[in-house]
């Protein structure tokens, strides 16, 4: 039928999902979890950038492959752990703040129930409810304190629906950093011919792959997202190489 999207077009639409009762219930239940995409991209890009930057800087300075391997491994372990620890502490701070606000809202509901109901009423009004439907929604949610507090946390404070997981965030960041960060070192560790150029090509592939994978969760075409990440990583590597060349032995 003219004007209807074809099969290929519908397959290409990002974020498409089913709308049966079972599919909706399953999808909403899964939305309570916290995704690890940001942590993986964060760790992977930084791992590839910093490790290759070390290789580029040392190569630019004219030192041996042994120096590149030693400094690269030290960076993968130390910087990877540092990033994981920083992400853990940052996510833990978000979790602590969320739990503090939870206690605040719980106390306010107990001490100022009418004021909190008015907040709830105005939230539903902003969503377009009015009259008996509005009052019924307020009564229904107010009868379930945990749902009430959860709604206030998301609507009043702008928090995510679920609690962040500091341990999972740290592990994901560290694993992604290690996986991407070891790639620039492999040509040197394996004794491949022209290891620096091989490392540059492999690292470029990692940059492009990470960027392309991000497109699954964004509106950008995979090639555009990949090239964007490749450009950013290449600029960092070029700066490191030029800085190292200033101290060339």
From TrEMBL:
Q: What membrane topology term does the record carry?
A: Multi-pass membrane protein
Where do the record's region annotations for Disordered lie? 1-20
GO-annotated biological processes: intracellular manganese ion homeostasis
Q: Name one GO molecular function term.
A: manganese ion transmembrane transporter activity
Supply the alphabetized keyword list: Membrane, Plasmid, Transmembrane, Transmembrane helix
Q: What is any Pfam family matched here?
A: VIT1
Ranges annotated as spanning the membrane: 66-90, 167-190, 196-217, 229-247
Query: What is the annotated localization of this protein?
Result: Endomembrane system
InterPro entries attached to this UniProt entry: Ccc1_fam
Please give the name of this protein: Membrane protein
